[in-house]
Amino acid sequence: MNKGVGLFSDIGKLAKEILYKDYSYDRKFSITTQAADGLVEVQYFHEHATIGSTLSLRNPPIFDVSATYGTATTVFGVETAYDTSISNFTKYNAAISMTKQDFCTTLTVADKGDLLTASWVQYLDQVKATIAVEFTNRFSEDGNTLTVGGSYNFDESTLIKLKLNNQGNFGVLLQHEIRPKTLLTMAAEFDYNSIDTSPKVGVSLALRP
Predict the structure, then answer these.
(1) Which residue in 40, 62, 179, 184 has a CA-CA distance of 20 to 30 Å to 194?
(2) Which of 22-26, 37-41, 172-176, 180-184: highest mean pLDDT?
(3) d(CA 53, CA 67)
(4) Model pLDDT for residues 103-137, shown as the tens digit of each residue
(5) Longest CA–CA separation in the chain, Å
(6) φ, ψ dihedrals at 194, nearest 5°
């Protein structure tokens, strides 16, 4: 098992999982697999560096490469993608993160420098409670978004999450593992700026490998 720095995709991953993962407002049944159809992936791990690359075999082929460097507490990473159909780079991303025993903070610049994202995750209880704060700003548009949320594990099978942003959206999620690798998720979103708007409600049943 790798004990060094993680992949570029791991930077800021925890905040995104707390604030966005499984917040679905559809009614659906899904089966998750680990197959990588039409994708070639290569990863190299070192104590202080990692390199990851993927090649999409679909038309058009897209080559994505990322690299990270750092220590167990501080990591810097970059990512880029090359679209062979236009012979040009379509993505430039960079990120830095700092991780301590009770918190993790991340700063990411994406979309060729247009999108700035800063996040903070605080562990109130290493097993049960976590709080996440995310600030995003797109320079090509007016305004920004501040999202605050958290997760709490009632037990090994039941998770509740809440989130609120400055755009007027409040979300709540309840997830229960009804049997091993079978998750029942109920989520709802309310617009507190428009009390006459009906809330979005979703229920999903997922089978995971």
Answers:
(1) 184
(2) 172-176
(3) 9
(4) 999 999 999 999 999 999 999 976 789 999 999 99
(5) 55
(6) -140, 90
